[in-house]
Amino acid sequence: MKGYRTTFLGLFDEPAGDRPPIREIEIPVIQRDFAQGRDDEETTALRDRFLDKIVQAATTDSNLGLDFVYGDIQHGVLQPLDGQQRLTTLFLLHWYVASRAGTLDPAARWLCFSYATRPTARDFTRTLAENAYPGGPASPLDWITDQPWYVFPWRQDPTISSMLVMLDAIHDRLDHDSIDFTDVWDRLAARPDEERDSAIWFLFLPVVDLDHGEDLYIKMNSRGKPLTTFEVFKADFESIIKAVDPDRHRHLVDSMDGSWADTLWEYEKRSDGDFKTDDEFERYLTFIIEISEWRDGAPDRKWHDKSANRLWPIEERARLAFADAGNEHAARNRDFFFHAFDTWVDTDPGTELGALFRAGGTGRGPIPLFSATPDLFGACISGYGTDFSVQETLLLFGVLLSRQAGDSVTSDEVAQRLRSLRNLTAAFLDRDRYMSSYVASTEKLVLGGSLDDLEGFRGDWVSDEALKWAFLEDHPGLKDAVHRLEDDPLVRGRIMVFDLDAAAIRARANAFAEVSRGELRDIFGAALLTKGDYSRDVGWEGQRRQLGSSQKDDSWTDLLTTGSRSSLENVGRPLASLLDDVAERLTTASAPSVREALDAIRLQWLADRESRSFYDWRYYLVRYAGARSSKGDGYYNGTYDRARGGFGYRHLRILHGSSYIAYFSDALLRASWVEGRLTDVAEEPSWYRGYERGLTLKKSRLEIRCEEDGYQLVPDDGDGEAVEQARKALTQEGAFDLDLDQHLRVRIRQKPIDGRQVDAEDRIQLCVQVVSALATAGL
């Protein structure tokens, strides 16, 4: 389909070559009403900006390109499929200027402009062609509506109402003594040639295949809608680039409606979207502009009024980034802008990016991404500004930089640097405060291959990237093992918890890939606790600790990646021991599966503790699933002293949920409730912060509370009768060591170990026995 550069008047010229002749323009019935004259705030703002550009082009030496107009030509009648709004505006502009210049000829072919949408609109445009506006004190709207030929039904036609508003808006801009309407008409009448553009021009695409025309119409989806902000922006942006980079202006104009649009259109077809590419272009352009702002170290440049949260319009931000004389980086930013689009021309961006990234997985090949599609370009044009993360932003920037660098960066270097960038950005990043630092560090890493002074990123993580680079330089054969660890979704690229031990890292990487599977999360946490107290200090002067959740991956990510290598030794030592144990059992076939290996480790450890009558908090969490965190992030709090064995028994609480306004459970009482299947006789021992309760019997409301040396029975509202009944029931049972002096208490046998009294019998089983005895007694 061949296009022709022309003007509104030029459409009606005798055609050269094979272009069909045009004797009339008729807006077809499939189009909606003329909308540019609507009086809502958004349309008014768009109309004002559009007309400002048109009038500037009509009255000065500047010119304005209005993209392309296309339509079906049958028997000399052009029915626009795209461009209705622009053609109608141009018709009104030419009518007004010709009227004021005294050159309006009702027989002129360009006045054959009508609407097939309504008879009233068709009659109005034909009548308008026969009557010139004389100027004077009355505006066009007032003059026209006061004429005897203005009939009443026209007042109800929204297209006519919009035309009248548009004419008044044109009049407001041109009704000045300084305007020479003959000169303006001459500028509008000039046709484009090879040397220069006309004042206002567009690319006309005649459609001779009706089916093709309908397909294009659907593609562009501009059925009489108002000019979008993007359409107005394009006119502004082309002028911005032309003023500073005329050599690339033609490339810009051709590409925005050609090769760049084709690239975006391929995504639009796949997504079954609105069959327009305006939004996609604007999202990608916003990404490029914001990268430029951050790259320039001017993140606040986007604000028109920061206190009022008002941004500059996108065209002004583009001017400041690409064309401002005061911006020393404007040329670099323009280069990046053109590259960011041109690099995808005649390619499938998804395929190109798929050679670098993939969604999940481990091992050789593209770099796995933990929470993003590998097609970062597609994700950007569909979600930038709403659903495109900081990590995705920096990775896409890194890819564009590497493609722009060409052969100066090898494919192996690109892969290594992008992998490190993924590792450094796989966590919360503060877009509002540090994005300029992130962008500068990304450029330093990707183009310079340097890990020195990467501002913004966490120093411990950057240092570990450098350590890995050095390790792999000495041991290139272990790259697969290191990458397998990095690619695990629990560590997300940060492997500070693992020793870079050349002799052990391959076996540990293989074992970790197995034990970290989601379905093994609970038994993995239990088995890991057999190798040591790996709890992480998360506050309250060490009294609040974190262990791995049985269900939530984020809990493990926090445990395994938060901090430096030295601070993670508390987790790293038990983990290395467990992985070595699992690897050995699988190698020697003493356990046929990973699950059985983990379970064997757990059961052997429990058996050892039971043989020594050593029942500390670790024993209870390893043995009883009810004591392990499953609903929350693995947070526990209580009386904790690492030198004396860790947690005590009184008020060892699990936090359910993800914050400290969620509810708690007493871990040991909950283990008893789950182990004894006490749902029918007792309430779950859980409470919200501010009210702490134990295991409450449903019938008598007696409450069992866990103490350091046993259990205390507390009546509801001082119900002494219930306490007396409980005392009798437990005394008759004869299996309990009761303290009857002051309160009803069930003591647990204990023995001193490392300065602390440790249970010498299983208090979970004891609690179940107590509840069973009380339930039997009717309590």
Please describe what this structure looks like.
- It is built from 29 helices and 25 strands.
- The chain has 779 residues and is of the alpha+beta class.
- The chain folds into four domains: 4-227, no CATH class; 259-471, no CATH class; 472-611, no CATH class; 651-779.
- It has a six-stranded mixed beta sheet with strand order 1-6-3-4-2-5, sandwiched between helices.
- Helix 11 (278-295) packs across helix 12 (314-322), helix 11 (278-295) crosses helix 18 and helix 22 (521-530) packs across helix 25 (594-611).
- The relative contact order is 0.05.
Key attributes of the depicted protein:
single chain, 779 residues, alpha+beta, 4 domains, six-stranded mixed β-sheet, six-stranded antiparallel β-sheet, 29 helices, 25 strands, 47% helix, elongated
Describe the SSE topology.
Layout lengths: L3 E3 L17 E4 L13 H19 L4 E11 L2 E6 L1 H18 L11 E3 L3 H11 L10 H6 L12 H17 L6 H9 L10 E8 L2 H11 L8 H16 L1 H11 L2 H13 L6 H18 L7 E3 L4 E2 L2 H9 L7 H13 L6 H6 L2 E3 L7 E3 L6 H8 L6 H16 L5 H15 L5 H18 L10 H16 L4 H8 L18 H11 L5 H10 L5 E2 L6 E3 L6 H9 L7 H19 L6 H18 L5 H7 L11 E3 L2 E2 L4 E2 L5 E3 L7 E4 H9 L10 E3 L6 E2 L6 E5 L2 E5 L5 H14 L3 E3 L5 E3 L2 E4 L2 E4 L3 H14 L3
Parallel strand pairs: 2-4, 2-5, 3-6, 9-10
Antiparallel strand pairs: 1-6, 3-4, 7-8, 11-12, 12-13, 13-16, 14-15, 16-17, 17-18, 19-20, 20-21, 21-23, 22-23, 24-25
Helix pairs in contact: 1-5, 1-8, 2-5, 2-6, 8-9, 8-12, 11-12, 11-13, 11-15, 11-18, 16-17, 16-18, 20-21, 21-24, 22-25, 22-26, 24-25, 27-29
